[in-house]
UniProtKB/TrEMBL annotation, chains A, B:
This is Histidine--tRNA ligase. InterPro entries: aa-tRNA-synth_II, aa-tRNA-synth_II/BPL/LPL, Anticodon-bd, Anticodon-bd_dom_sf, His-tRNA-ligase, HisRS-like_core, HisRS/HisZ. GO terms for biological process: histidyl-tRNA aminoacylation. It catalyses: tRNA(His) + L-histidine + ATP = L-histidyl-tRNA(His) + AMP + diphosphate + H(+). Belongs to the class-II aminoacyl-tRNA synthetase family. Gene3D superfamilies: Anticodon-binding domain, Bira Bifunctional Protein, Domain 2. GO terms for cellular component: cytoplasm. The lineage of its organism: Bacteria, Bacillati, Actinomycetota, Actinomycetes, Propionibacteriales. Homodimer. It comes from Nocardioides dokdonensis FR1436. The keyword Protein biosynthesis applies. The gene is hisS.
Length: 450, 450
């Protein structure tokens, strides 16, 4: 292999201690999802190109697969790498519908690929965690509340900074615009979505020019979009704008139920808001929508989002409505790891290094390691029978907290952080629970504890 | 989304219950590797094409990535999908050497991609589990024993049929051929490797024609290749062939140490053999080599393999020797799942379905679920307030063993397999340990238990 290796821009790779953090985050998310009865699936990373490329913005970011040397096979299907987990999930549901029970509750944690310009929080390969419920023909609204509450709980258990779930409802917006009499409701939604890039007056102008609104209608659209409260008081504030519409009523009731359902329990660091300017660009949302923001990392834009789609998938005869939410594992973790907000406590699983007195006695050290492993203590045997001082430094460099010595007087284990050394039996000794496995060290936790 | 979804040949996808089996296998492998102090890494799935394509057999199977629409960027690096986990690991070691401690012990469980013709056990996307130890400049031989023993232990813990580790040593073969005076040792190794496809006499002919051996030398090469024993008695058998050579001596001692080291403990279903015809085609092995076979699935050829490479990676100044072994997770599991040898006990994590008496009382059912989850019981709330009989059938169809009812007389939980229904407190009730999570059901286990 040749010299000079440079990182590939947009394809971040984690060193062992950081990877331990990512694994713990993924394990924690999975634990919560499974406690709520969501089953894990993985889809293949490729899809037929015609399923991915739908003429949208994303198309130019799709990676296409080709064989280096095309063999005798002529008509190999054109394949592309999936750019999210929703498109492959929809295809999975259609392909395997006969073998699934509906409502089908699944979570999926996999990398996705987008050929976009790399920047902080934006990568070409990055991991997403999606949780969705999909029904056959129908999917009761209470599943909206359920799936959002699951993600609130899952993220509340993570060692990350405070997160804010900002909810809205497409029916609420559409009903309001319709009740108000805005001529082009779709254009209006698309225009209001620009509020985070353009000033209010500019958006008002666009509502007039692009959506056919009167200046007074535009003003009330903006008034709606400025409503942002941590409880259900938005209902009265919207009513005060004087618009009545059946769809608006439905949207208000749904959004209130989501806010109430997600606020029910005490949370550690996740808060919930109704934010009536959240629209989410994608056209297929039809009810609940959500975006998730991380405290101090507003520059990343949302670190997650999702909503209700009345037609996640359809095979012509059967329609599959769904509701789900996605969390950007790489998008949030990689900046936190880079900033030192999160770190792994050590780069190796080993809690103990078994010292080797001489190469002849390596089998005895192996036997001690086997005894420790038999009751679940991760450990490794020193690579060389160097002087004990050097073996201790080996443990130090690897972040291993304990070194095990065997001498004429029997077994002893040393905590190399304190220097304390005690007699120990390999059949029963275990480190304190906190030392057993690598942990996630969170700067915010440390600060809170001070 | 359109109709008519057909599976993509070579890209198998697992239904939820089968995926639960795969997850448990991956978790079990990870547990063993971590108990032995191996740290997990993941590498990005793409590598620069010039690092993957080295003019070998594999080149024509490499998938190359291209953007659907090339944008303004002109000189995007040519990227290919990795076809194993060794090439990316070697690159990872070179790229991050300054941040790693050597010997670096890592495991890696990821999919790889090969555009080969799909057949049983051969897929275009498949998951491998690799465990390796890599040193800087030097790597003591005892690590060969260590890494092989770790994989023996890891596979012994899996719910799969009996597995056989068949070991050999390149030094042994090379030293034997050299001591025997075979002119072209490399050609001889390559020829002997054909013994599983060609009869002995044909291989003997090729040894004469391609490796320049005399008929008598060819006969002794074949005699060496037929030695296959479950212990270290091969040493005497080789000595009896009357060849002496320093490298042969080294190889014999190493192979004996590996066989002894891997046989030391009692195993459930993994056996170990010295099989002196194992050569492994790849040229970079320099000592220990191993192939792993699965009982009753010899048609899959090996389900794993690996060995020692004195130059896993090099940056010109520093060389990184390594030793490792890879297990084909998909290659072994997918046929076992297809044949019903392995199955998941249920397709959902939920152990309990909380019945809903009426939609009005759904929040009460939610509260029961929350109480169960708080002490680690995975559960879900019934999707509709149908008649109880229908809710029980919902649980049945999903494979959920318990249904929770709340009535005027308090809480009761029913084991729907036995019909037994008992009073229960949501704050403390838990199912028997065996029912808590989906399990791997192994037909071989069942047969053994009968």
């Amino acid at each position: 292999m040749s010299a000079k290796i440079r990182p590939l821009s947009g394809f971040p790779e984690l060193l062992p201690a950081a990877r331990a953090v990512e694994r713990e985050v993924i394990a924690s998310l999975s634990r919560t999802f499974e406690l709520h009865g969501f089953t894990n699936i993985e889809t293949r990373v490729v899809e037929p190109l015609d399923r991915l490329a739908k003429g949208g913005e994303i198309d130019k970011e799709i990676y296409v697969l080709q064989r280096l040397q095309q063999g005798g096979e002529t008509s190999e299907a054109e394949l592309g790498m999936h750019f999210d987990l929703t498109v492959p999930f929809a295809r999975y549901v259609l392909e395997h519908a006969g073998h699934l029970e509906f409502p089908f509750r699944r979570f999926q944690i996999q990398p996705v690929w987008r050929g976009e310009r790399p920047q902080e929080g934006r990568y070409r390969q990055f991991t997403q965690a999606d949780v969705d419920i999909v029904g056959r023909d129908v999917l009761d609204f209470h599943h909206d509340v359920e799936v959002m509450r699951v993600m609130v709980e899952a993220l509340d258990a993570l060692p990350v900074p405070a997160l804010s779930f900002q909810f809205n409802n497409r029916k609420l917006i559409q009903g309001f615009y319709r009740g108000l009499g805005v001529p082009d409701v779709t254009a209006a939604i698309r225009t209001i979505d620009k509020l985070d890039k353009l000033p209010g007056e500019k958006v008002a102008e666009l509502l007039v020019s692009d959506a056919g609104a009167t200046p007074e209608q535009a003003e009330r659209c903006l008034a709606l979009a400025t409503i942002r409260v941590p409880d259900t008081s938005f209902v009265e504030q919207v009513r005060a704008l004087g618009v009545t519409d059946d769809l608006l009523d439905e949207g208000l009731a749904e959004l209130a139920a989501v806010i109430e359902g997600c606020s029910a329990a005490e949370r550690r660091h996740v808060s919930v808001e109704a934010n009536l300017r959240i629209a989410r660009g994608l056209d297929y949302y039809t009810g609940t929508v959500v975006e998730i923001f991380m405290d101090g990392y507003e520059r990343l834009k949302s670190v997650g989002g999702g909503g209700r789609y009345d037609a996640l998938a359809s095979d012509g005869r059967t329609t599959y409505p769904g509701v789900g939410v996605s969390f950007g594992v790489s998008r949030s973790l990689i900046p936190l790891l880079a900033d030192g907000v999160l770190a792994g406590s050590r780069p190796v699983p080993s809690a103990v290094l078994i010292a080797v007195t001489s190469e002849d006695s390596r089998p005895e050290s192996d036997a001690i390691a086997a005894a420790l492993r038999a009751h679940g203590v991760p450990c490794e045997v020193a690579p060389t029978a160097a002087k004990f001082g050097k073996q201790i430094r080996t443990a130090e460099r690897r972040g291993i907290p304990y070194v095990w010595f065997t001498g004429e007087t029997g077994h002893q284990v040393k905590d190399i952080r304190t220097g304390e050394q005690v007699d120990a039996d390999p059949a029963t000794w275990a480190p304190p629970h906190d030392d057993l496995r690598p942990k996630v060290v969170s700067r915010t936790d440390q600060e809170q504890n001070q």
